[in-house]
Q: What sequence folds into this?
């Protein structure tokens, strides 16, 4: 794709978010799209948000489970950017129409106490740089159609990455913990009082800390670093849960805490 095509795709995504009307699949309009194209488009969308006084507050990591990677025929995670407008308090009610097709995932969030970066970042480096971890929900949305109406082709990973890795919101629980034994941190996610999904932190690259290692190393390829104070969503260990109007979400992380969210 050309720089002009990147700009046009980013503009279409921004307009889709503003209007609530999804745009078409980039992988259909541009069959040769690749990872570099997708991240270039994502970068332009984020730059437009920052220019509109919506600063970056962190990062999300997706496609960390083996099942999701196999479904999309890839072998690496992806990443997106969190901005200030995406923050919601636990127990909040999301106004009707705020998102197009919202879904949620349960995750462990890292809040960084120091900058970290470089191609040789290790697990110990991440632990040393982490201020605390907390229970969280990620709100997903899609500004791109999930399937092409003409051909039936499903979204590809390039579509998802360009669309900020489907990120739309973050909800942090109130609890704060040291980054220890995260493989065994689990959650029971309920919808309107009925258990819908369960999972363990080990579903995220076998250890959520390794997810942050991956992000720091990937960012180093582009001369970037994770910064102190930023929030990192390390990846979901449950499948995405659809959240039509009237959905009440409660994620019980046991001793680790809990997070709740309602959709009007």
A:
């Amino acid at each position: 794709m050309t720089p002009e095509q990147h700009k046009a795709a980013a503009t279409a995504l921004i307009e889709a978010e503003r209007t609530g009307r999804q745009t078409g699949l980039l992988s259909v309009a541009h069959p040769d799209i690749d990872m570099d194209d997708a991240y270039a488009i994502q970068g332009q969308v984020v730059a437009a948000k920052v220019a509109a006084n919506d600063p970056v507050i962190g990062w999300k990591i997706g496609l960390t489970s083996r099942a999701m990677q196999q479904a999309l025929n890839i072998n690496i995670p992806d990443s997106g950017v969190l901005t200030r407008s995406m923050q919601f308090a636990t127990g909040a009610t999301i106004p009707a129409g705020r998102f197009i097709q919202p879904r949620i995932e349960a995750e462990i969030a890292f809040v960084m106490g120091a900058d970290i970066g470089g191609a040789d970042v290790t697990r110990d480096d991440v632990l040393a740089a982490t201020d605390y971890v907390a229970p969280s929900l990620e709100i997903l949305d899609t500004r791109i159609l999930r399937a092409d109406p003409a051909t039936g082709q499903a979204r590809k990973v390039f579509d998802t990455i360009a669309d900020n890795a489907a990120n739309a919101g973050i909800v942090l629980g109130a609890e704060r913990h040291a980054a220890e034994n995260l493989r065994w941190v689990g959650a029971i996610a309920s919808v309107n009082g009925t258990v819908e999904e369960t999972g363990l932190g080990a579903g995220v690259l076998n250890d959520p800390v390794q997810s942050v290692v991956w992000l720091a190393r990937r960012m180093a390829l582009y001369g970037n670093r994770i910064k102190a104070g930023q929030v990192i969503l390390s990846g979901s260990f449950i499948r995405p849960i659809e959240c039509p109007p009237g959905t009440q979400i409660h994620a019980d992380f046991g001793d680790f805490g809990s997070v709740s969210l309602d959709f009007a």
